[in-house]
Q: What sequence folds into this?
């Protein structure tokens, strides 16, 4: 692909192409209106676009199935050997940049797939926000896993396995609940077994991405494109809340069971820095979706409105739980109150009878 892409690029424009295709894209709405623009795409440009999409997907695969485990392993070795060599630090920085670049390409791919009908132009500020967002999120996640694994080596396998299997089977559970037919239009030459293998590999990659950061591309097996094109703010909110709680729990376990090696490390300060670093990643994510997203004009609701609605829903659930508890307490106390009321009524009836008897005797 790489050699062919260079060959097409350097020979483009020298020979007249026999035919061109016309694509229609809509501009971002301005003052409530969006214009449709027609563009001629030559055969060479179409092949280059195909190669570019393939390179983007390959960078995502390489980042999360190659660089992410490599970065985790190198950092774990540094912790065990209690030193960071120059060569290993260079490799770790390159691995981190590779993961961040793969996550950035994943974000751009998700935007272009979801808004395929529009002419999407990503500004430099958006690239900067995505880079900072992914850098803080991935770096803190890797450090938390390494610290937890350095003191609880057996339990870290359970944490990784639960995360991986949970995200791997999540698309299949949604597909089973939707009761949709098995997708057959992925590739004409593939059999049913081949299609199943492709879908398993896709969910495998999806789980690998969500192991380290939020996946911008959501696998939906019931959709013909296998990707959900809706913006689900609630799913994103739940993911980051649960992930923050998980990171805090893993850091707490590391703080409790840390060895003598960490005596020269200010453990509370390190825990605070990692939690703040993860919150900084969430902050840049909010900035991106609120101000720098290239298709923010197409959102039905902004990220702030979605967060407010999520918090209102959580507040309503808490209030409903409190009201049920109070109702249960009142129901428990009510028999005693009824017994007291019955006792009081009996006393009043006896008093009325004594008064009636005294009045009759006087008469």
A:
């Amino acid at each position: 692909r790489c050699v062919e892409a260079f060959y097409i690029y350097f020979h483009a424009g020298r020979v007249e192409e026999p035919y061109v295709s016309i694509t229609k894209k809509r501009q971002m709405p301005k003052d409530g209106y969006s214009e449709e623009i027609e563009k001629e795409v030559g055969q060479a440009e179409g092949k280059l676009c195909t190669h570019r999409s393939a390179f983007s997907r390959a960078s995502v695969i390489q980042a999360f199935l190659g660089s992410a485990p490599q970065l985790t392993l190198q950092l774990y070795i540094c912790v065990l050997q209690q030193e960071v060599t120059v060569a290993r630090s260079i490799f770790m920085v390159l691995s981190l940049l590779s993961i961040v670049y793969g996550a950035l390409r994943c974000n751009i791919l998700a935007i272009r797939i979801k808004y395929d009908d529009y002419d999407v132009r990503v500004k430099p500020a958006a690239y900067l926000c995505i880079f900072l967002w992914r850098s803080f999120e991935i770096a803190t996640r890797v450090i938390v896993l390494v610290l937890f694994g350095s003191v609880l080596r057996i339990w870290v396998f359970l944490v990784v396995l639960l995360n991986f299997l949970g995200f791997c089977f999540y698309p299949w559970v949604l597909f089973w609940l939707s009761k949709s037919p098995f997708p057959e239009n992925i590739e004409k030459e593939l059999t049913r077994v081949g299609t199943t293998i492709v879908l398993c590999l896709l969910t495998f990659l999806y789980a690998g991405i969500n192991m380290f950061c939020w996946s911008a591309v959501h696998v939906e097996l019931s959709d013909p494109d296998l990707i959900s094109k809706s913006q689900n703010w609630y799913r994103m909110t739940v993911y980051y809340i649960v992930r923050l709680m998980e990171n805090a729990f893993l850091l707490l376990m590391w703080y409790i069971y840390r060895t003598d090696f960490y005596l020269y490390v200010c453990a509370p300060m390190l825990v605070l820095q990692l939690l703040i670093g993860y919150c900084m990643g969430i902050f840049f994510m909010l900035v991106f979706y609120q101000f720098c997203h290239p298709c923010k004009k197409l959102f039905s609701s902004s990220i702030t409105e979605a967060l407010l609605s999520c918090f209102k829903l959580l507040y309503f659930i808490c209030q409903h739980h409190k009201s049920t508890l109070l109702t249960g307490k009142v129901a428990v106390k009510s028999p005693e109150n009824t017994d007291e009321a019955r006792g009081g009524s009996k006393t009043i009836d006896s008093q009325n009878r004594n008064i009636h008897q005294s009045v009759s005797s006087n008469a």
